[in-house]
């Protein structure tokens, strides 16, 4: 069995956000759980492995593979990033052109990070498919 705590810790190691350290523990766990569920939903290739959960014990019924754990943590990082990309404060036009330009660059960098994380997840899933293919061995 892989505990949710293991998954949460791996995801938090990938997220560089000091504000999460001051969140109340219960709020942080609730948010991490939501990010995990959203990430599971968006991973159809791993959905079968990730769908067997015991919510009362807060764990996955089976031991997750390193691949599943890594991809799930990356998916949770993408879920953490999503509200930052769609934040109203980033999309509103400001009166200062210089400030607006900086917001545009920041938003572009967040979107680039999201694309990069998506590619990273797909590569991990793709590489595992090639490794398990008996025709290529």
Q: Could you explain how this protein is built, in words?
A:
- This protein has 137 residues and is mostly helical.
- It is 67% helix and 4% strand.
- The chain contains six helices and three strands; from the N terminus they run βαααββααα.
- It has a three-stranded antiparallel β-sheet.
- β2 and β3 form a beta hairpin.
- α2 crosses α4 (66-85) and α4 runs antiparallel to α6.
- The longest helix has 35 residues, at 97-131.
- The two termini are 31 Å apart.
- The model has no long low-confidence stretch (mean pLDDT 80).
Mean pLDDT: 80
**Count of beta strands:** 3
Sequence stretches where pLDDT stays below 50 over 5 or more residues: none
What profile does the largest beta sheet have?
A: 3 strands, antiparallel
Q: What is the gyration radius calculated from CA atoms?
A: 18 Å
| Share in helix | 55-70%
Can you write the helix and strand succession as a string? EHHHEEHHH
Give the quaternary arrangement of the chains: single chain
Strand content: under 5%
Shape: globular
Secondary-structure-based class equals mainly alpha
Strand order, largest beta sheet: 1-3-2
Distance between the termini: 31 Å
What is the gist of this entry?
The chain is mainly alpha-helical and 137 residues long. 67% of the residues lie in helices and 4% in strands.
Q: Helix and strand layout, with pairings?
A:
Elements: E1 2-3, H1 4-14, H2 25-41, H3 47-51, E2 53-54, E3 59-60, H4 66-85, H5 88-91, H6 97-131
Antiparallel strand pairs: 1-3, 2-3
Helix pairs in contact: 1-4, 2-4, 4-6
Which features characterize this protein?
single chain; 137 residues; mainly alpha; 3-stranded antiparallel beta sheet; 6 helices; 4% strand
């Amino acid at each position: 069995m892989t505990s949710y705590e293991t998954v949460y810790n791996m995801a938090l190691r990938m997220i560089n956000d000091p504000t999460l350290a001051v969140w109340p523990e219960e709020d942080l766990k609730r948010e991490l759980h939501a990010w995990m569920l959203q990430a599971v939903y968006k991973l159809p290739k791993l959905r079968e492995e990730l769908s067997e959960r015991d919510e009362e014990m807060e764990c996955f019924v089976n031991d997750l593979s390193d691949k599943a754990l890594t991809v799930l943590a990356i998916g949770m990082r993408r879920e953490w990033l999503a509200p930052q990309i769609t934040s109203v404060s980033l999309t509103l036009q400001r009166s200062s052109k210089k400030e607006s330009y900086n917001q545009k660059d920041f938003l572009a960098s967040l979107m680039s990070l999201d694309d990069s994380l998506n590619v990273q997840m797909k590569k991990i899933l793709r590489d595992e498919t090639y490794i398990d293919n008996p025709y290529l061995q």
